[in-house]
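tool_call predict_complex ligand=zinc ion
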Amino acid sequence: MFLVDSHCHLDGLDYQTLHHSVDDVLAKAAARDVNFFLAVATTLPGYTAMRELIGQRENVAFSCGVHPLNQDEEYDPETLRELAAHEGVVALGETGLDYFYTPETKERQQQSFRHHIRIGRELNKPVIVHTRDAREDTLSILREEKVTDCGGVLHCFTEDRETAGKLLDMGFYISFSGIVTFRNAEQLRDAARYVPLDRLLVETDSPYLAPVPHRGKENQPAYVRDVAEYMAVLKGVSVDELAAATTENFATLFHIDPSRLQKS
Ligand SMILES: [Zn+2]
Ligand SMILES: [Zn+2]
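tool_result ok
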């Protein structure tokens, strides 16, 4: 089996007490058949530091972007464009809108979101979208900026079936995290059953949101195995089938050579 953690913040894990190094984290993941990782940036200096921390690896790809919660400081879209053009960067993001935590930066978030999509279209790299309490604005900006040209994924999906349908209509992929395993997430499970297998991704969003049975602990890429096992039951397929489908979807969306997504 070959699983991909399609969204993790490898630079945010606890390297003081829980893990010795990035190698250690990736080895723990490999022990559970999690063999490829998309390391997601949340600020531009963070992107640069993250690449230094992780280095060049056959089994790690990167995204570059400024998270909607990090819009208190301005950044230069030209710098974003230059960094996002780097080799090894397969996506723009994470970007999107979060009106729950930082409604005061609403306008800046929208502007930044639009920049990410425009650069994604220019570079032919998909966008990784975060949305919270901002469903309508997220959908309209995706439409207005013609996101279908570059494609993308709504990561850590927590919306309903109807919203999933609108995103699927735009050609989007939908990624589920450990939240789908939480006891009170029935609406989310309903959406997960609805999303077709050929548009599904799984992620940890580690270090946040550890799935059951690790809830409350720091999350790590190894735990995407728990998300995949849970999703397989929801979809009524074997975990091998779910792993194969989500790995293939990952390769398609992020234009990653499928030979990198096989056990060597
Ligand atoms: Zn997010
Ligand atoms: Zn994230």
